[in-house]
User: Fold Deoxyribose-phosphate aldolase from Frigoriflavimonas asaccharolytica.
Amino acid sequence: MSKKSETIIQTEIHPRNEGLPFNTQYFDEILVNRSAVERRVKSLGGRRSVKKEYQAAWLLKAISMIDLTTLAGDDTQGNVQRLCMKARNPVRKDLLEKLGVSELNLTTGAVCVYHSLIPFAKEALKGTNIPIAAVSTGFPAGKNSLEEKIAEIKKSVAAGATEIDIVISRALVLENKWEELYNEIKLCREACGDAHMKTILATGEIPTYTKVAKASWVAMLAGSDFIKTSTGKESVNATLEVSLVMMRCIRDYYELTGVKVGYKPAGGIQKAKQAVEFLILLKEELGNDWLTPDLFRFGASSLLGDIERQLEHYVTGSYSASFRHPMA
Ligand SMILES: O=C[C@H](O)COP(=O)(O)O
Assistant:
């Protein structure tokens, strides 16, 4: 692989997050100032100017960090197979050639499906290293009993999922039952075994950024490998504001433990331009170390299509967005 391609896709194995014993001292005092969050996000707008040759690199990087998702009631074997084909070859060969990175072994970060579709994804991804992520624990509402949640996780792992996206019981956050939430997530983590666990907070259903931050801390203390914003089914899904709050919790947890927890914004990220905004925030808040599929994913069903369209515009010279190379 050429130097140029290597800088686009860099993966590194990060140690699992083993968590810490429950203690409210880590998050008791958190008080997030909403207007400070909004000001910081506003400051991202319109002040980046970046070399044109780096624009495509950002978009290719973004592709490598997509959990290519289908989570619809009408999912079938056929559409999961098509999704997996797309995950294996997310960008047309001729387009990669025109971009000068034809040797790049580009895939999406993972595919994300319901439990019952895992066998079809497994078959369609044979011979690749593309992980299968399964949504579990009564996705999307998370209203199943804890026993059912644990059983569901174990079944998905046995079926071949190597990543499990769990949903938390939002009521525990709303009622400040932090220790109960910790115990629930910890049991889910144990049920995951070697599979990496992403914990969905469903931030659109959490009324304050302070509670989002506290829930993020509880999820990390209980051993989540990633914290994730949303199921994609709430009325408000991933936002830059909530991402800022969660990324800062990840940074503080790293400072405390030396462990890097991953971040996954999900739901409603449909445009290449939006994806780049998330990556700029990530780079500024957590640094280049997090610009890898091991530590950052987009949960998205339609983002890839728009990125491909923008890459087409890029090679025909009509792409106008401007931003810096992700690793620059
Ligand atoms: O986790 C992934 C989300 O469900 C995808 O949401 P989306 O369909 O809005 O991209």
User: Anything to note?
Assistant: The mean pLDDT is 92. The chain has 13 helices and eight strands.
